[in-house]
Amino acid sequence: MTSTHPPSPARALVVGATGIIGQALSTQLVEAGWTTFGLSRSGGAADGVTPVVADLSDLDGLRTALEGVDPELVAITAWTRQETEAENIAVNGAAVRHVLAALEPSRSVRHVALMTGLKHYLGPFEAYGTGDMPDTPFREEEPRLDHPNFYYAQEDELFDSARRTGHTWSVHRSHTVFGFATGNAMNMVLTISAYATICRELGRPLVFPGSELQWNGVTDVTDADLLAEQIIWAAEHEAGHDQAFNIANGDVFRWRSLWPRIAEHFGVEWEGFEGAPRPLETAMADSAETWRRIAEQHGLVEPDIDRVASWWHTDGDLGRTVESLTDMNKSRAAGFLGFRDSRESFFHHVERYRAARVLP
């Protein structure tokens, strides 16, 4: 396995630095000695990261904001959900194109990592889990589906840039992400934890919100820190160049086994799947005042439940009616051997949120 470590000091740009993956990756890059820049609209960034404020839809603004950044590694971990897949393709494809075009004049970029996900295999929101899909576990060599998909559009922009400028690339297809991020609500660990905390406050059971298949079947997830490790590995090793890799923790579990452990951890009773999904978006529709009260009682840093939990996002993951499992053999054979215990990953991040006073 050949290492291609860039010369010191290496420079990295994380696009989407305030997201759950962007925060994890930025932190690891700083700890590894990279000079790290974090691009976001808000200007937020992890400790040790130089913030870059820009809008991915504004090419001229990006050119100005990125002047002098000159990264060797670019990691694109951001996307913006739109009403239709056609809009997703236009907006998110353009985001990749704009970032790479803005950096092209400096000729500094050596590797670009793009984070996508399992909609590569399952289809976009408008055709999710329909038609002919590959068998599980999903493998990277599967052909693209017939449906238009913004992940494909992002990949094509990445490939076009690589052909023009000669940089290497990697694509990282994650499953549901477990991780730690502040100011980012699209996080299943924090959403379920906030739900359990509200249930405890109101004396309600922790009701599994998803489908029968997700309750009884096996699934896998991706730890945000593990995904960050794979991105850095792919940038630094020839075996990671010009390849697409699945990234999951390497184990499988059933929610019917993990759910009681979560309930016990938060000191609440629980209920499993009973006849039909019971979505969080409905159950938690009036939870804002309860969370505000909890935050005040415990001195939490965020009293706005909409900045803590994303009910629709977790409903989407737990409500799937198709099996979702990924194969990690390609990544292992190439030399990336990282793994996580998914059950321990969940509770590890819960404790990080407690330490940060996001959870009581």
Automatic annotation (TrEMBL):
Domain of life of the native organism: Bacteria
SUPFAM superfamilies the record matches: NAD(P)-binding Rossmann-fold domains
Pfam families referenced in this protein's UniProt entry, alphabetically: PRISE (PF22917)
Domain PRISE-like Rossmann-fold: start-end pairs: 88-360
Annotated PANTHER family: 3-OXO-DELTA(4,5)-STEROID 5-BETA-REDUCTASE (PTHR32487:SF0)
Name recorded for this polypeptide: NAD-dependent epimerase/dehydratase family protein
Native species: Aeromicrobium endophyticum
